[in-house]
Design brief:
Length: 338
């Protein structure tokens, strides 16, 4: 069997904002009412995978306490070592030679899971399967999973984790109890995020840009484009003012990479579009004067069309189109806008 185990370090505790859902899950377990399959949905960056892994550890633990697995028993040690015989974590495979990760979870992976689910638990307790992100199951893999979702065997829990739960086939969703995780309260998210980023002003900015998802906010801080936002906006302004050529500006951004630049542009242009449609506040509030100035030079209709074009070009990433050519096209379109 290929290696589907979670490697150490293993997280045994849910996030603080997940305690209400944690109590619900542990209560179902205590009352022997736990379903055999759970579809855990919600926005990206709110800690769904951590909750699923912590609950898997709790179910497998030989001495759990109310708030978590013990972290010290044989089961927890095996889980930390990535060698628990009764746990599988299924995710797109990464080629060890090329280090490239597959775009989908494939049918051969699910067939191994089906074989696993048919066996008895080696430690005499639960068997737990976690599939994440579940929306990356390809069609054949999803179909191969259906029978196991219906009849997974005694004391077996399958958790499907996804930020795009509605994109899963109805045949999958109907066989699971759906658990939608909400965004944390802003105060809870900031209480966790502020120590991570160092100051409350940055934490609030990042959280707003990430739509209230704290893990996404932390990832945004470390993204390639975040620190370059002002320079990117100034190039957009220079193009509109005729001070900078569109292709010359594009070439300055080739080194950062098309994925990072398109992500940054999408976030900034979304703010411009919202402002042009009457919004009073922008998410990039530290750059509000530059954004407001740009909105006076571009029509709302053009901004909306440009934003749609950015989304289309982001879908091209990973294909055969070269990143520099995409950026040249994007900056040229920005220069031609009315």
């Amino acid at each position: 069997m290929s290696d589907h185990r979670v490697q150490s370090p293993y997280t045994f505790h849910p996030y603080a904002w997940q305690l209400g859902i944690w109590e619900r899950l542990t209560g179902l377990s205590a009352d022997s009412r736990l379903p055999h399959a759970i579809l855990m949905g919600g926005a990206a960056g709110i800690g769904k995978q951590r909750l699923a892994h912590a609950f898997a550890a709790y179910l497998l633990c030989q001495s759990p306490n109310p708030t978590s697995a013990c972290g010290a028993c044989k089961s927890c040690n095996l889980l930390s070592a990535g060698s628990h015989p009764d746990f599988i974590f299924l995710t797109p495979e990464t080629d060890p030679k090329t280090e490239k990760t597959a775009k989908f979870i494939k049918v051969d992976q699910v067939r191994e899971l089906v074989e696993f689910a048919a066996k008895s638990a080696q430690l005499g307790g639960y068997r737990v399967i976690c599939i994440e992100p579940a929306h990356l199951l390809n069609v054949q893999a999803a179909n191969a999973l259906l029978k196991t979702l219906e009849e997974p065997g005694r004391q077996t829990l399958i958790m499907l984790v996804s930020s795009q739960a509605l994109s899963l086939p109805a045949t999958i969703r109907s066989r699971c109890q759906q658990l939608i995780l909400p965004l944390p309260e802003e105060s809870d998210a900031l209480a966790w995020l502020t120590p991570q980023v160092g100051d409350p002003t940055s934490a609030r900015l990042l959280l707003g840009l990430a739509g209230g998802a704290p893990l996404a906010a932390l990832a945004l801080r470390d993204s390639l484009w975040f620190a370059e936002r002002e320079r990117l906006l100034k190039d957009l302004s220079g193009i509109r003012e005729g001070k900078v050529g569109a292709l010359a500006a594009a070439q300055r951004w080739h080194g950062l990479g098309a994925e990072a630049v398109l992500s940054g542009l999408s976030s900034l242009v979304e703010d411009m579009a919202r402002l042009s449609l009457g919004a009073k506040v922008v998410k990039h509030h530290d750059l509000a004067p530059i954004i407001q100035g740009l909105c006076r030079r571009v029509s709302a209709k053009s901004l909306l069309e440009f934003r749609r074009g950015l989304a289309e070009k982001q879908r091209f990433l990973g294909g055969n189109i070269q990143g520099p050519l995409l950026l040249d096209a994007v900056f040229s379109e920005w220069g031609r806008m009315a």
